Amino acid sequence: MAGVEVKVEGLSKSFGRANIWSDVSLTLPPGEVSVLLGPSGTGKSVFLKTLIGLLKPEKGSIVINDVDLVRCSESKLYEIRKLFGVLFQDGALFGSMNLFDNIAFPLREHTKKSEAQVKDIVAEKMDLVGLKGDEKKLPGEISGGMRKRAGLARALVLDPEIILFDEPDSGLDPVRTAYLNQLIIDLNAQTDATFLIVTHDINTAQTVPDNIGMLYRKHLAMFGPREVLLTSEEPVVSQFLNGRRQGPIGMSEEKDTAQAQREMAEAGELAGLPEMKPQLEVSPGVPERKAVGRRRERVQQMLHTLPPAAQDAIRRSYANEPVTAMAGGGGPLPQRVPPGAPGATEVLNPGDNPPTWFTGPGRHRPRM
Predict the structure, then answer these.
(1) What is each CA distance from 216 to 176, 240, 344, 349, in whole angstroms?
(2) What are the pLDDT digits (tens) for 203-221?
(3) Of the candidates 195, 228, 239, which has an alpha carbon nearest to the alpha carbon of residue 317?
(4) Sheet holding 162-166, edge to edge
(5) DSSP bridge partners of 9
(6) Residue 128's CB: how many other CB atoms inside 10 A?
(7) What is the pLDDT of residue 217?
(8) pLDDT tens, residue by residue, 133-192
(9) How many other CB atoms are there within 10 angstroms of residue 231's CB atom?
(10) What is the dihedral of CA 299, 305, 311, 314, to 10 degrees?
(11) What pLDDT does residue 212 have?
(12) What integer pLDDT is reported at residue 276 of this predicted model?
């Protein structure tokens, strides 16, 4: 199992005269974990359903493996759907089936595997999500967290290359949410599949994904690597990711300008960029996530285009985290030092004038 790229261009969806969102363009990098955020009612679940072809958009394209799902034939769409695994918001288990039969359902429906093969695969996936020994239990006999994990096991049985999570943390207490988040990170490390998670949970958005996107007012406000979104000064993004009352988002939708200005005056000067929470690491014994190195390489390439405060925040976050998945070698990132300091290596980068000096190995590495 390995992830594939999902490229969305100019996607628009309406129900009758009600426009849900327009001109949504983003690319889900292969093998990485992405999160889609947004206030309630912004069409996040609609986006997931459109992504797998359950809903037809009016405009735009969704390209996977050089196939446009919006314009392809029904037979081709059916084949492409086999690349997906979906964890629905409530688990969507069949109440009259035990967990084994629920998880085995896609194998029996879409493959010609023998019952012995089905048994082995289901046992493997149930063990993977921590449900070994619960095969005969009914959905009504288990907790909400267990139902989520059973739904996840079912999403994994066909070894999908793309896994969609529709609010996996809804209805879960903070402890179960933390366990589920760790499970998602470990699964990504083991499968290198492409993950897209719809969530409202700020802690999940800050600590789990490689990439973050946000829907707001019928458009995609922003999408990019976690470091870029978490240091963004875009008002709606900053407000949502930091859980602030001050900003353009109101209780119903958008605040008027006067109200927003009044609240900002009452609050006074807001603190600058908060320290970024570290991204969750894999559990002991689980292989390193390849996605981390790929994402950080992209961030290195675009860092000089970001505002100075964002650059500094990203450098600080990297300096505090040992990196073992960097392209070109592991170890901690080099640190900025005065020119000529012991162990300093000169690194030239676009926009650096005068040159930037770092401690680190005796080779030139991209500026961080």
Answers:
(1) 28, 10, 45, 35
(2) 899 999 999 999 988 999 9
(3) 228
(4) 84-87, 162-166, 194-198, 33-37, 211-216, 219-225
(5) 61
(6) 18
(7) 87
(8) 899 999 999 888 888 889 999 999 999 999 999 988 887 788 888 888 999 999 999 999
(9) 22
(10) -20
(11) 96
(12) 81
Domain spans of the chain?
6-230, 290-359
40: nearest Cα among 200, 246, 203? 200
What tokens appear for 254 in the block? 């958008």
d(CA 186, CA 287): 8
DSSP-derived 3-state class of residue 313 = helix
Q: Please, are residues 248 and 239 in contact by the beta-carbon 8 Å criterion?
A: yes
Pick the CATH number of 6-230 from 3.60.15.10, 3.40.50.300, 1.10.10.10, 3.90.230.10: 3.40.50.300
**Angstrom distance (rounded) from CA 232 to CA 247:** 14
Tokens of 271: 């603190």
- Which positions of the chain have pLDDT values less than 50? 255, 267-270, 323-337, 344-368
Report how far residue 154's alpha carbon sits from residue 101's, in angstroms, rounded to the nearest whole number. 10
Amino acid identity at 84: F
- Enter the pTM of the model: 0.80
SS3 call for 124: helix
In whole angstroms, give the CA distance from residue 254 to residue 257: 9
What sections of the chain are H helices per DSSP? 44-51, 74-81, 99-110, 115-128, 144-156, 174-191, 202-207, 226-230, 235-241, 257-267, 290-302, 308-319
Please say whether the beta carbons of 37 and 240 come within 8 A: yes
The per-residue pLDDT for 247 is 67
Q: Can you tell me which residue has the tokens 């409530």?
A: 90
Contact 44, 36 (CB under 8 A): yes
Query: In this predicted structure, what is the pLDDT of residue 172?
Result: 79
What is the residue-averaged pLDDT of the chain?
82
* Bond before 354 cis per omega within 30 degrees: yes
Q: Taking the CA atoms of the chain, what radius of gyration do you get in angstroms?
A: 22
Q: How far apart are CA 154 and CA 115, in angstroms?
A: 16
